[in-house]
Specification:
Among the domains are: 21-125, no CATH class; 147-446 and 460-482, Rossmann fold, CATH 3.40.50.200; 490-636, Galactose-binding domain-like (Jelly Rolls), CATH 2.60.120. It is 27% helix and 18% strand. It has 23 helices and 28 strands. The strands form eight sheets. The chain has a seven-stranded parallel sheet, with helices on both faces. Strand 2 (55-60) and strand 3 (63-72) form a beta hairpin. The longest helix is centred in the C-terminal third of the chain and has 37 residues, at 775-811. The protein binds 2-acetamido-2-deoxy-beta-D-glucopyranose (3 copies). Residues 16, 218, 287, 289-290 line the site of one 2-acetamido-2-deoxy-beta-D-glucopyranose (NAG). Residues 701-728, 872-885 have a biased composition (Low complexity). One of its GO terms (cellular component) is Golgi membrane.
Length: 899
């Protein structure tokens, strides 16, 4: 396959050379897309983007062949609110022509559309989204007493930091069994030297005297303002700095010290404004050769009604991280479990915390009790110390010499775990991301043994939804790490989706069929055989993921449980009082670590129940399960690829073919988080508990009432604090703007459509190569997907537009301020007028440096029209409502140029 020289040069550049200086975004003047290019396709990246009227901005973070592309926004008058996305429409029309062409004997007419559409694996519009910090708002200061034991440690180690004796999470004099327990390691000289942790957060005050000496600038970046340094700028940008202090605060005379006080900390700023998937994906791989751990104390809203998972691009970045980060040992992603327990929120409704690639950390307080905010779920791995029962976390704050005394929430638990992992990696840098998880499972210590939430697993370990495998003890962890024998590579067994009573979900998310959820619930069983283990080179079980398709008029009523062959039950979903969504579980993925090291051979039963509430009902349509573990034969290990078409039920027949060409789509539902922290001001003072199971409700016992709904978090928060406290962020109204979920399926549909049609295309092409003359067999394969696509086009476009408009009101901005002021700005109507044109020239430049330089001066004038005219096969009319508008500066204009 011949590639144009400039493209070859671009591909040869190390990825970081392209991504080291991401240009500022201007969502007010441009529409952004992510395009996944197939380098082995027939058309170069250059050609693909120019045919679509786009320009390349940069590679997406560390993801090879994924490109951020953009076009100028057309003038607003030309687009009615319902206008479909013209770029998606244009690509769709290419695909249709390519497919139409292939069923005729002659291919000439379809050559150009085929070249382009066969070279684009994936195209997704980008939208800005806001992530929520999992921090508490400030509260009254904690215990002022000076502790004698902490003093002894300080004097032995020469610690002069003035607030060290208040850092009970380091040395707890009152409850000595409840602390991170790392001072013994410090005395052995284990202080995290050489390890870098990145705080993916709202900035990091590298000017703080407590952080400056440990600040790692090369691994830092501001994805909100697109600047090199993660400077905290908003008045509430103190969260990342406080978390960083817990890990890497310098041992000096300022505030306290970090758990790994000789390690380095980087700041990756993403929470101080809406960002798009492309930047979130880049942030999770930023500096990933040198940075070991990504500390993530944020996620979808913890309101007990959100259910959101990372999209395809972000999943790809995370998988890229665990496969290629840290020299192939894998980036370590640590996520806070969430602060929404009082709203029945559960970390299995958050696709970040229930990812097998994350170490999910919940909180216990300084008495070792469960703080009422800390979320429970089967994906919780360990707990670390944080606020509650009268004490908060004392750490560094934004400012030259400023200390924080009110830090807490699961936000503060995660960095405490990160500190311990940094200590472990400093003595065993070769531990893989899975070794760190194994060490959590094996060394975590049981607390509150009388807590009814504890159960014994088949492997004989105590597990609790609230505490995971228990409290993370720094000393035990690092000692075990020193002696640890590395695990073999990852293996997995995938059970294909099982349809229940002909349950289906199509590409638009429409669910039909399935078994009605009765008072007895609905059960279904699959059998794992010894043979399956052998065939999949599978030795020992670690995580299990379970995907479900459930329709329901009230999602919060649904309960899902998985029971193992050894009768170990994982509650995957328990009742959520405030979740009244009627969108069900459209291929939602749950995760459990409760079966770690269990022998998986035998029958696995899933049971779906609901509350039996009057007027609320649903169907269980189907499920699938994947067992994750270690290989028998490491030399036969495979690299996992992010799967395709994974929310369709049943899975498409040609899936194996499509999977090998690794197509793309997003997972499950997405919604925008509400920017409140969901953690009331009393998070540090309220006494914890150790007497309640995490999930108490039994089917039928708790009928949600109208009052429950009225008291739902969104409505109640304004009354709790009418002026936003710092950690509640800036967008209290944003959630209302996106209350409709329609756009969600629209946007997902847009992605699926192109993933699917590309898949069909490749599959068909592969088939075509095998049986060259049998065109009739090909056309049959086409019918279903293409008709879905045709139906979907308008819907997805509309959805995308709604998405934009919803955010436009709060996030539009002007040229100069860019994304940073997404918060302050204008209206969607402010889109700059001006034409869309073709620009195919800049990649033709032989010098990649100057090619990059020209990106800054994108010209709107078509300049390669002759080149384009030579292809008579382009659509004579672009299928977009915009073409009914005026002729200039629009797609109409572009298509006229083509003719
Ligand atoms: C804390 O570490 C010490 C060694 O410094 C160890 O002896 C002790 O058992 C640990 N504490 C707990 C509660 O595990
Ligand atoms: C990673 O660290 C090495 C050695 O310290 C350094 O040479 C290299 O530039 C760093 N890479 C990045 C991307 O910062
Ligand atoms: C499922 O579909 C098959 C084939 O169309 C049909 O025979 C069967 O009755 C259906 N089952 C149910 C439960 O609807």
């Amino acid at each position: 396959m011949r590639l144009p020289l400039p493209l070859v040069l671009l591909l040869l550049l190390p990825p970081c050379a392209l991504s080291s200086q991401p240009p500022r975004r201007s969502y007010s003047t441009h529409d952004y897309y992510v395009l996944e290019h197939l380098p082995l396709g027939d058309a170069s990246l250059d050609e693909c983007v120019s045919r679509l009227g786009l320009e390349v901005i940069e590679q997406v973070g560390e993801l090879q062949n994924h490109w951020l592309v953009r076009r100028s926004k057309p003038s607003p008058e030309l687009f009615a609110r319902t206008t479909a996305d013209p770029i998606l429409e244009l690509l769709q029309s290419f695909r249709q022509q390519a497919n139409a062409g292939s069923i005729h004997a002659r291919f000439e007419d379809a050559r150009l559309p085929r070249r382009v559409s066969s070279s684009i694996k994936y195209l997704e519009p980008q939208a800005l989204r806001q992530r929520v910090k999992r921090a508490p708002p400030p509260v009254h200061p904690g215990n002022e007493e000076v502790k004698s034991n902490a003093r002894e440690v300080a004097s032995r180690l020469g610690i002069q930091d003035p607030t060290f004796t208040k850092q009970w999470h380091l040395v707890n004099d009152e409850y000595p069994e409840h602390m991170m327990n790392v001072s013994g390691l410090w005395e052995e000289g284990i202080t995290g030297r050489g390890i870098i942790s990145a705080l993916v957060d709202d900035g990091l005050d590298y000017n703080s005297d407590d952080l400056a000496a440990n600040f790692y600038a090369e691994g830092s970046y501001d994805f909100n303002d697109h600047e090199d340094l993660p400077t905290p700028k908003l008045f509430d940008d103190h969260h990342g700095t406080r978390c960083a202090g817990q890990i890497g605060a310098v041992k000096n005379d300022v505030c306290g010290i970090g758990i790994a006080y000789d390690s380095q900390v980087a700041g990756i700023r993403i929470l101080s404004g809406p960002i798009s998937d492309v930047d979130e994906a880049a942030s999770l791989n930023y500096g990933y050769h040198n940075t070991s751990i990504y500390s993530c104390s944020w996620g979808p809203a913890d309101d007990g009604r959100s259910m959101e998972a990372p999209g395809y691009l972000i999943q790809k970045a995370v998988v890229n991280g665990i496969q290629n980060g840290r020299g192939g040992k894998g980036s370590v992603y640590v996520f806070a479990s969430g602060n929404g327990a009082q709203h029945d929120d559960q970390c299995n409704f958050d696709g970040y915390t229930n990812s097998i690639y994350s170490i999910t950390v919940a909180a216990v307080d300084f008495k070792g009790l469960h703080p009422y905010y800390s979320e429970a779920c089967a994906a919780n791995m360990v707990v670390a110390y944080s606020s509650g029962s009268g004490n908060n976390i004392v750490t560094t704050d934004v400012g030259k010499n400023k200390c924080a005394t009110t830090h807490g929430g699961t936000s503060a638990a995660a960095p405490n775990a990160v500190g311990v992992f940094a200590l472990a990696l400093s003595v065993r840098p070769e531990l893989s991301w899975r070794d760190l998880q194994h060490l959590c499972v094996r060394t975590a210590e049981m607390i509150n043994p009388d807590d009814p939430d504890w159960e014994t697993t088949a492997a004989g370990r105590p597990f609790s939804y609230k505490y995971g495998f228990g409290r993370l003890d720094g000393y035990s962890y690092v000692k075990a790490a020193q002696a640890w024998e590395l695990v073999k590579p990852q293996a997995w067994i995938e059970i294909q989706p099982i349809q229940i009573e002909n349950g289906t979900m199509d590409i638009l998310g429409t669910m039909s069929g399935g078994a009605p959820i009765t008072a007895q619930g609905v059960k279904n069983t699959v059998t794992i055989t010894q043979d399956m283990l052998v065939q999949n080179n599978f030795e020992k079980l670690e995580h299990i993921t379970v995907k479900v398709w459930i329709s329901h008029t009230r999602r919060g009523d649904v309960e899902v449980e998985l029971v193992s062959p050894n009768s170990i039950k994982s509650v995957l979903a328990a009742r959520r009082r405030y979740d009244s969504a009627n969108t069900g579980f459209p291929g939602w993925r749950f995760m459990t670590v409760k079966h770690w090291d269990e022998n998986p051979v035998g029958d696995w039963t899933i049971q779906v129940n609901d509350q039996g509430s009057e007027g609320e009902f649903g169907n269980f349509l189907g499920w699938s399960m994947t067992l994750w573990g270690s290989t028998v034969d490491a030399s036969k290990a495979k690299l996992y690829e992010v799967p395709v078409l994974e929310t369709l039920l049943p899975s498409p027949q040609e899936e194996t073919v499509i999977t090998t060409s690794s197509l793309a789509l997003t997972t499950a539902t997405k919604s925008f988080p509400k920017p409140t922290s969901h953690l009331p001001t009393d998070h540090g003072s309220i006494e914890g508990e150790a007497t309640m199971p995490a999930f108490t409700n039994k089917p039928g016992t708790a009928t949600p009432t109208a009052q429950d709904d009225a008291a739902a978090p969104t409505e109640s928060i304004p009354s709790e604090s009418s002026t936003p406290t710092p950690d509640e962020g800036w967008f209290p109204d944003m959630a209302n703007l996106v209350s409709s979920q329609k756009w969600v399926f629209g946007a997902i549909g847009a992605v699926i459509v192109f993933g699917l049609s590309a898949g069909i295309f490749f599959w068909r092409r592969a088939v075509n190569r095998r049986r060259r003359a049998q065109y009739s067999t090909l056309s049959r394969g086409d019918d279903v997907p293409m008709s879905s696509i045709a139906r979907n086009g308008g819907v997805s476009g509309q959805g995308t537009k709604e998405l934009y408009d919803a955010f436009g009101e709060v996030s539009d901005d002007d040229d100069d301020v860019d994304e940073e002021t997404g918060l302050t700005g204008g209206r969607p109507q402010d889109r700059s007028p001006g034409g869309l044109g073709f620009h195919s020239g800049f990649l033709d430049d032989d010098d990649p440096e100057s090619a990059r330089a020209t990106q800054a001066t994108y010209r709107d004038e078509p300049e390669d029209v002759d080149h384009l005219r030579s292809h008579s096969t382009l659509p004579s009319r672009i299928p977009s409502p915009s073409s009914s508008g005026s002729g200039d500066g629009s797609w109409e204009h572009a298509s006229q140029q083509l003719r």
